[in-house]
Amino acid sequence: MRPIASDPTNTEIIEHLSRYAPGTAVRMAINPEFPYAHTLGGIVLGVGHDGSPVIYIGEAGQAGFLPALTAQELGWHPRTVVPARTRRGVGATDQ
Predict the structure, then answer these.
(1) Do 29 and 35 form a contact (C-beta atoms < 8 A)?
(2) For residues 59 and 68, what is the distance between their CA atoms, to the nearest angstrom?
(3) pLDDT along the chain (95 residues), means of 10
(4) Could you state, in order of their start, the residue ranges of all structural domains in the chain?
(5) pTM of the model
(6) How far apart are CA 77 and CA 55, in angstroms?
(7) What φ, ψ does residue 73 adopt, rounded to 5°?
(8) Closest CA to 7 of 50, 70, 62, 64
(9) Is 81 left (phi over 0), alpha (psi -120 to 50) or beta?
C-alpha cells in the first residue's frame, strides 16, 4: 500500500485511483478498531473550517465487515501467520 496524504488533493486521489481498473468498485474503510466497509454517497464541494474549499465524500451505508486482509493491508491489524496444525491420532488412548 502506498500511503496517501492525510489531507489529499483531488489530483492526488485521482492519481491513486488511476492505478486500478476503471470498473473496480470503490468503498471507504472505516474505524481501524472495528473495521467496516462503507459505500460512497454524494460528493459535494463545501467549505473547510478555515474557509478554504473542500470536496466532501459522503457515506451512503454500511457494506459489512472489512475483510481481514484489507485491514492488514491498511496497516490497521498486524499480519498474522496461521499456526501449523498437527494431526492427532484417532482413538488414541493416554498411557
Answers:
(1) yes
(2) 21
(3) 81 92 93 92 95 94 92 87 73 60
(4) 10-19+26-73
(5) 0.69
(6) 29
(7) -60, -35
(8) 50
(9) beta
